[in-house]
Amino acid sequence: MTADVCTQLYNASSWVLNDLYCPAQFDRISCWPPTKAGIRRIIPCSTHIFPHASPYAYASRLCTNKSRWDTRSNYELCIGCSSDGYSNVTETFSIPPNYIIARKYFIVCANILSIILLIIGIFILLGNSRLRKYSRNILHVNIFFVFLIRSIIQLIAELYMNKGYFSHNVFERTDACNRTNIYFKEDHLLDCKLFTILMNYISSSVAHWFVFCEALYLYRLLRAKPRKDQVRWYILTGWLAPLYLTTSTYVIRWILKTDLYTCWFEPSIYDWILHGPNVVLQILNMCIFTYICTLLIRKLNTPHQVGAPSDQRRFSKYSRLTRSTLILLPLFGIHYFFFMWNTKPLLISNLIVIHLTVHTISSSLQGVLVALVYTIVNSEVQREVLRSFQRCLIRHDSSWEESGILRNYINKLENERLYSLGSHRSKSSIPGQYRPRLSSNFTQNPFTNRDRNNSSTPNQRDSL
Question: Which residues cross the membrane (predicted)?
Fold first, then answer.
């Protein structure tokens, strides 16, 4: 209901109004009918705004002797304790102030580090022409942007909102249960609600959808290598699907006038439109994660063609399995599966701090782990960056062509990649474009047109 609808409702009725009556008025919560001067009007609580109010509760407002409504409506009984015991608190637990301060500094430092590393990763993947051609790196860049925006939002929330950025725009009320509720003033609700929508779109939805798209792409890559043009459908799904769900959720909440003065911070039953698909995505991610781990174990347990497996080779096998599993954890966002539920009512009070600590560390450092795993410590990315750097040095100083410092390190990275493909393979079975240049008296420019023509195309080398 709006102010115009409220006024038209009583103007069309048989009310006979004069100067002795307060006119019908809408206070953004209830429609107050015309009331005689000097009378305190009582109406039932709105079930849309106060769904847990007692059926016997009511709101009141005074029509003054000057035939003007009082500036404040009394909704204390509507926001008080309900008859079904919904608002009764059996136990309260306060987090130590020192912990809150330490957690805030950790979140700020972790998000600043995430922003720096993600920006470096984006520049590396987009700045190198060879890395930019790989379809999987285009998908990585999009998820980098997602985590970058999320880190910026979390940083703003910690630095500004928690410092009282909105403190002068809110007012507090204490209900009958002695609970302090914070409400936002009408003039500043729009800014706060837009920030809430953006935060939920990025943090709760886009992150889940892009993590699922990465997992699904890796799954299809292992079963049947996807074409490069399919990546755009993963990217469009990652951005547009959560946009549709987020828009639907908050349009419904706006139409039904839920939590008008709470900036939509409070949970609502309509939030399942947004969070319900995220639960399904996490279950699918767990299934894909289990399948890929099983596939890795099966491949690493394949017997070698030459010789029996030695202790060193067995150790290398399990170390590669452990490394591959740890790489998959931030990619699939497995920690979301354990912390996406509201488990605080089920936890013992002493365990709430442990739950909050693990959740804070995992969510704040995910951007750091993703940037490190897929760019900075990735051997393929290091190899391409060093080659570009060496070409730049040779272009400006020809004496670097004779230097073997960078070339030896590039060859080391190439040998590690070949060993990960299978150490039992003989040198003759390795294609020429993949063989490392190990000759110490190598004098030819390693980046001639002949080598570039012999190098494989991005589709041929678009592996894990």
Answer: 105-126, 138-157, 194-219, 231-252, 272-297, 318-339, 351-377
